Amino acid sequence: MTLSATHPLQDGRTADSPLITAYRGGKPSRRPVWFMRQAGRSLPEYLQARQGIGMLESCLRPELAAEITLQPVRRHDVDAGIFFSDIVIPLKLAGVDVDIVPGVGPVLGSPVRTAADVAALPKLTEEALEPIREAVRLTVAELGSKPLIGFAGAPFTLAAYMVEGKPSRDHLGPRTMMHADPAAWQALTNWAADASGMFLRAQLEAGASAGQLFDSWAGSLGLADYVKHVAPASARALDHVRGLGAPLVHFGTGTSELLVAMRDVGVDVLGVDYRLPLDEANRRLGGTTPLQGNIDPALLSAPWPILEAHVRDVLAAGASAPGHVVNLGHGVPPETDAAVLTRVVELIHSVEP
């Protein structure tokens, strides 16, 4: 598996960009920053573009997905676009009955709880991913020298939604299933790994310069359960994109105790949430792994002097790692003032790398 000669990483467009340089542990020309959920609810232009269009439909209209991905890059001068999509898109494209219910989140027509349920799941095909490839191609053509980050949900988070049938606080369903029926659990997470891996590969081959695996709910797990019942599937998802030469990032929330295990599934960069200072994360990882993070999203609404001091603290803590890409310790809250994000980006860029 190799990327085409016209891919932005291969033809010189993004290989030396601040983001890719930092992901690879080099010294960037400026401190790179992007935000999870930067393309979305905090932007008035996003709300306008998506008026009357459902979330999953927005993701599957290539022109619209490209436009939404580009909006925060234009507005904030961030150092990367994050592909606008949703972690359940591979389920939808495979033919699973799933929708995003406003105010709730992903809801499945019928939960997946038994070996028979898993065996009945449809398979994702390469052809079904064409709208994703087209959206990436359109986005990359506009981004020029700025990289696009592809993304996919990690198998545990996808499986958690599939077992519960909807969002959950404690993820008791999947945590029970991994012990009560480990064979069915393994089959389910393998299915999810292949769906997410194909989804991520489609984005990278179409022009994304890096890939991030989001494990939103892994923080509900203890280390032993993560290592035994989750890490193998995350590694399997990443197997679909290894060897392409694009940097791979892994991020979870509430995963301070899992950092080493999450790195060891085979990624180049680790995203750290707001709960753990970056210098401590770097210490736990042995000082060998570039880091991404970890401004506390709660502080985006704080008075500017407080937010500025916090951002400078994050920059100082991140400087201990071999590479540092500035990000939030989770996504942009919908009520965030877009002007504040722009100001944060300007501040980060004003500090010498």
Report on this structure.
- This protein is an alpha/beta fold.
- It contains 15 helices and nine strands.
- α4 runs parallel beside α7, α7 packs across α10 and α8 packs across α10.
- The radius of gyration is 19 Å and the shape is globular.
Alpha plus pi helix count: 15
Work out the radius of gyration.
19 Å
Largest sheet: 7 strands, parallel
Beta-strand content bin: 5-15%
State the end-to-end CA separation.
34 Å
Classification by helices and strands: alpha/beta
Mean of residue pLDDT values: 97
Unreliable runs: none
The quaternary structure here is single chain
Write the layout of secondary structure elements.
Layout: H1 18-23, H2 44-49, H3 55-60, H4 62-76, E1 81-82, H5 89-94, E2 98-101, E3 105-108, H6 115-119, H7 130-143, E4 148-153, H8 155-164, H9 172-180, H10 182-206, E5 210-215, H11 223-239, E6 248-252, H12 259-263, E7 269-271, H13 278-284, E8 291-295, H14 304-318, E9 324-328, H15 338-350
Parallel strand pairs: 1-4, 4-5, 5-6, 6-7, 7-8, 8-9
Antiparallel strand pairs: 2-3
Helix pairs in contact: 4-7, 7-10, 8-9, 8-10, 9-10, 10-11, 13-14, 14-15
Please name the defining characteristics of this protein.
single chain, alpha/beta, seven-stranded parallel β-sheet
Would you kindly provide a brief summary of this structure?
The protein is 45% helix and 11% strand.
